[in-house]
Amino acid sequence: MPLSSRLAVDGGEPVRNRPLPYGRQSLDDADIEAVVEALRSDWLTTGPRVDEFEAAFAAYVGVAHAVAVCNGTAALHAAVHALGIGPGDEVVVPTMTFAASANCVVYQGGTPIFADVDAATLLLDAASVEARLTERTRAIIAVDYAGQPCDYTALRALAERHGLALVADAAHAAGAREGDRAVGSLADLSTFSFHPVKHMTTGEGGMITTDDARLAGRLRVFRNHGITSDHRQRATQGAFFYEMVDLGYNYRLTDFQSALGLSQLRRLESFVEARGAIAARYDDAFAEMPEVRPVAVRAGVRHAYHLYPIRLELHLLTAGRDAVMAALRAEGIGVNVHYIPVHLHPYYRERFGTHAGMCPHAERAYEELVTLPLFPAMTDADVADVIAAVRKVIDHYRA
Ligand SMILES: *Cc1c(COP(=O)(O)O)cnc(C)c1O
Fold this sequence. Notes:
Layout: H1 29-39, H2 48-61, E1 65-69, H3 72-82, E2 90-94, H4 100-107, E3 111-115, H5 126-132, E4 137-143, H6 152-162, E5 165-169, E6 177-178, E7 181-182, E8 189-193, E9 206-210, H7 213-222, H8 231-237, H9 255-286, E10 292-294, E11 301-302, E12 308-312, H10 321-330, H11 346-352, H12 360-368, E13 369-372, H13 380-397
Parallel strand pairs: 2-3, 2-4, 4-5, 5-8
Antiparallel strand pairs: 1-9, 6-7, 6-11, 8-9, 10-12, 12-13
The structure holds pyridoxal-5'-phosphate (PLP).
Residues 71-73, 97-98, 100-101, 143, 169, 171-172, 193, 195, 206 line the site of pyridoxal-5'-phosphate (PLP).
């Protein structure tokens, strides 16, 4: 066997020597300059750039209110709190997501109820949600898995029919659209994450968007210890008095992070376009490989491609997903798995009695999923390396 076709896991030459991560931020001089300018100003934490960032983000998604917080998990917690969810309340959450989408319900003493996803798109399945509803259900949290908007038309209709609140965990979907409506404007509350692997970053950071002024007010109080005014308002009024009206947290975003967020937001469209172009190259390459199946994309949406997961047709291969992943990593490709279904984690099994068999589509997908590297700064050569490594590993394990 020629050296180049022997797998790196078996001692062959890897496709690349410098490992390619699955995700990575893109920071330019303008981003860095914006942060430096903020650091040289009078404000480190809550200052004018927080307001500016919120206003710009609200305008971008087309809603009345955006509330900045310190990370995407805090955004979810604030959303669940704003809806008044507490002990005895149930919230339906897809299992094909990051644990934070469900943990936020538990923070407030509520019970997450795991729904299955559509077998082709891996997005929350409205029929599965409907089957999980009880008289205790208060809300649905939808997750725009991989960057693709859920079927919000169906989910909104379902929520309205049953008097439920609809939250979008849009951590994957900044820049995505359903028709001409931006993700962030499609649910009662939408939450975003600005972690470095997401579309735009503030280091750590998050945002909640809504058209509801009352919910926005609750979010603002919650992120500041449950206090109704912030220190800037008191400073301008020359007043010391404040009232804590609710139990809140310190979930504030700093001014210099907001400066970075404003600068990154200006680049978001170009980031989403770059991701889409890479995804299109992957789609073309894998169309010729029957062993590799991309996740289906709904008609009429703009997919933001936070992730590019592929599904392995395991019956056409002599190795399982874990072996394929190990082989790809040895080739220098930073593959990952998104996600281990949340209801299979020990915490949920032990605390909430969840078990295998509850969400068959997600459980099946989990066995087959491999997330390939995808970030705007990938070069053409990086993309070619990923395709070459997948082809090499698949050729080797073809049944
Ligand atoms: C990243 C992510 C979060 C959490 O965001 P952080 O900013 O890391 O707290 C929540 N939900 C989903 C689906 C995510 O991918």
